[in-house]
Amino acid sequence: EAGVAQSPRYKIIEKRQSVAFWCNPISGHATLYWYQQILGQGPKLLIQFQNNGVVDDSQLPKDRFSAERLKGVDSTLKIQPAKLEDSAVYLCASSFAGSLNTGELFFGEGSRLTVL
Amino acid sequence: AQTVTQSQPEMSVQEAETVTLSCTYDTSESDYYLFWYKQPPSRQMILVIRQEAYKQQNATENRFSVNFQKAAKSFSLKISDSQLGDAAMYFCAYRSGSGNTPLVFGKGTRLSVIA
Fold first, then answer.
1. How many other β-carbons are positioned within 10 Å of the β-carbon of residue A17?
2. CA distance B30 to B2
3. Nearest to B8 by CA among B114, B111, B115, B113
4. What's the pLDDT at B105?
5. What residues does A75 pair with on adjacent strands?
6. Structure confidence at residue B35 (pLDDT)
7. Do A108 and B44 count as a contact with CB atoms less than 8 A apart?
8. What value does the mean pLDDT of chain A take?
């Protein structure tokens, strides 16, 4: 079974530039999450989708971050303009929804962003 | 809001020995799930073990077991017969039992295994 796919694995940009990360969840997983993991910290939720609708984006810095999941499958997270403090690993995860949801999240390998 | 605290930034264990990682959490809910996830260097995070709050019996998965103390809001992970492949960041996580809610993670404990 294919896992959660993310790209790119690594990205280096200058501050004020833009960047986009892509995620393809496990087939059949209705729920998709983007987490931000700053070095030395635990992952922090940025946004949660169920199908193509947003469930929770309360911690997404909406002045610079945006995310979409137009067809309820893959998702894109964009940062524009990037700041130094956005340097982090961006983790995508997916899970079943409803009665199939055991609470387990399946994670991708992450996209490591360095902002110079 | 729920919080998860891991008070040990780093731990080390000799190969074949036993180590315990600590986790405490704060919640007013009675229905929830607790998890330990493992994140090896440059590899994806994977689930180690899961505990439902309504179950009194501690979860066990091969060499991994938990000590779930609901009243104390404590959820420690014991790794027996430690192996070199156990070296990783370990994250304790909480999820509300109501609805399709996300995981709340602690800051993690880095485990080193010494040969």
1. 14
2. 12
3. B111
4. 95
5. A23
6. 96
7. yes
8. 92
In angstroms, the CA A69 to CA A53 distance is: 8
- Interface contact B98, partner A, CB < 8 A: no
The whole-angstrom separation of Cα B10 and Cα B115 is 17
Would you call B105 and A43 a contact, using CB atoms and an 8 Å cutoff? yes
Cα distance between residue B8 and residue B72, in whole Å: 18
Q: Report H helices in A12-88.
A: none
Q: Which residue of B has its CA nearest to A9?
A: B42
Spatial separation of the C-alpha atoms in residues B3 and A76, rounded to whole Å: 28
Tens of pLDDT, residues B7-43: 999 999 999 999 999 999 999 998 899 999 999 987 8
- Cβ distance of B45 and A91 shorter than 8 Å: yes
Chain mean pLDDT for chain B: 93
**Other C-beta atoms lying within 10 Å of the C-beta of residue A110:** 25
Q: Are strands A111-115 and A10-13 parallel, antiparallel or unpaired?
A: parallel
Q: Please, which residues 50-89 of chain A have a Cβ atom closer than 8 Å to chain B?
A: 50, 55-56
CA–CA dist B85, B63 (Å, integer): 12
Our measurement of the distance from residue B73's CA atom to the centroid of its chain's CA atoms, rounded to an integer in Å, reads 13
